[in-house]
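Fig. S4 source data, part A: sequence.
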Amino acid sequence: MSVQGSSRQPTWIEVAVTNAGVVKGATAITWAWCWGITREVLKHEPTVEEIAEWWNMSIRTAYRDHAAFKKAFPMLDSPAPYVDSPVILPVIKKASRRMSDFENNIKSRKRPTDMAAMKIGFAPFGI
């Protein structure tokens, strides 16, 4: 997959926006970010319910965000290929160490802003 008129590899956010639109594409990247941090903290691939609980979001919101991810990346079964990218994984690990400080105060956990997640969305797409 290449960007139209270019031989460069598209970014994750470009793929997400192409498949799902701007809003759902941004939501998909944010979902992958939350999934990655939750996986690092829990030490296993999290369920939608575990992500909702860990990030203090409603189950409904978690499923809606998960659906946005599936629409943006229909070729993936989970965010693992994104999170495990050599560009993204160190960022996720660093963020998860900071987030785990809040382990005893789940109510204070805030999902990253779309802008914060977009910074990691500009990594080259590769699966």
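Fig. S4 source data, part B ends here. The longest helix spans residues 22-42.
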